[in-house]
Amino acid sequence: MRIWIATVSEQVPSDSPAERLLRGGTWAHELARRGHQVTWWTDNVDHMRKRLRSSENRSVGLSEGLELRMVAGPGYKRSVSLARIHHYRRTSAELHKWMADSVPPDVCLAALPALEWVEAVLNIGEARGFPVVVDCRDMWPDLFTDLVPRGLRWPARLALTPMFRKKRRGLRRAYAISGVTTQFVEWGLEGAGRQHNGMDFVAHHAYSDPQYDAATLAQAAESWDASGVIENRDLLTVCFFGVLGSGFDFEPVMAGLRLLGTRAAQVRLVVCGDGFRLSEIRRSASGLDGVHFAGHVSGAHIRAMMERSDVALAPYVGTRNFLQNIPGKISEYLSSGLPVISGIDGAIGKYLESHECGWKYSDASEFAACLNRLLEHPDLLLTARARATKAFESDFRAETIVERVERALERVVQNWVAATGK
């Protein structure tokens, strides 16, 4: 098949050495490896570092059968901002022009949250005669209203009416809807105002293990040793990797560590990542000697730290976008056989519980109780680690997930050809 994948705000291989790819990039590489001709469309912003990759459109051949096309736009500095919306509008217009001059695909995947990109792809699909699958990976723009105080949600919803209308139009025009969980597909179908059509499908966030040579991993391990985070199996080491923004709540984590009293000396929390809430989180950890802030680290550093960790932390806030989601961070943790401690229930908590590869907490006392239990019963970690590995292999490994995506796209194309004769 000739496949287009249109995503925004994803990392690309040139962003940094051994860059970890996200959903669209992983699908693109794996589908090309399986013999398809893939064009991966994305924008020119390195979302993690909020910097422009280029000031003009660029096309790069990544491997046999895989071309990356980066659409130029003005960029943005905050994930939740008007500048980001403006960036999507500008790049969607450029995307439409570039796609209109390209050989059309057999099928295209267009990903939310970029409503403007979805609309541009749907317009081209209708004009050029190919089916478009809208992939729901963020509940956009619903997540905006979830982030404001409850008393301001109705005014926020009113202010965002144009975006909600655009979301509904895009979902209604989609030939099929995919999502990261069953709940996300149902959210998309609700927006589309229809029932499951037999072509809609669920695909968890796939994770492809990055390959690092022994020298690179050894260098990363030495770097951790030099920073004072040595391998120490006498400590319960908890790791976190992510952008320190509005999506995470560390208050119950730090308060829970304080509730441990003298036992806190047996726990080490390593926080890796930057973001606008870093200073606030640092202040909340004041006086906790076992908390280490490492800043933004490379993929090799992440792998080395996961190898010397006992459990991973997922302190997500309880918005719908997270409660009904299993973010890619979970699959990354599980890939290293790390059980996960989740700050929310929802799809994450239920998955960890049903697969016995993690635990959940709702406040500081529950977080402290979880750590106490692991300190008192280290055998729990051994069992959970084995189950974490099993869960990853069955539900999140890239080869497994993309094989399911491939079959779903083949159904879409076959149905389209049968229905339209094109």
Task: Detail the topology: elements first, then pairings.
Layout lengths: L1 E5 L16 H11 L3 E7 L1 E2 L4 E2 L5 E6 L2 E6 L10 H19 L6 E6 L2 H14 L3 E5 L5 H6 L5 H7 L1 H13 L2 E4 L2 H11 L8 E2 L11 H13 L9 E6 L9 H9 L7 E6 L5 H7 L6 E5 L3 H9 L3 E4 L5 H4 L4 H8 L4 E3 L3 H9 L3 E3 L3 H13 L2 H17 L2 H23 L2
Parallel strand pairs: 1-2, 1-7, 2-6, 7-8, 8-9, 9-10, 11-12, 11-14, 12-13, 14-15, 15-16
Antiparallel strand pairs: 3-4, 5-6
What keyword list fits this structure?
8-stranded mixed beta sheet, 422 residues, 6-stranded parallel beta sheet, alpha/beta, 16 strands, 17 helices, single chain, globular
Can you walk through the features of this model?
With 422 residues, the chain is α/β, with parallel strands linked by helices. Helix content is 46%, strand content 17%. The protein has 17 helices and 16 strands. The strands form 3 sheets. An 8-stranded mixed β-sheet has the order 5-6-2-1-7-8-9-10, sandwiched between helices. Strand 11, helix 9 (251-259) and strand 12 form a beta-alpha-beta unit. Helix 3 (115-128) runs parallel beside helix 6, helix 8 packs across helix 11 (299-307) and helix 9 packs across helix 15 (364-376). The longest helix is centred in the last third of the chain and has 23 residues, at 398-420. The two termini are 14 Å apart. 45% of the residues are buried. The model has no long low-confidence stretch (mean pLDDT 93).
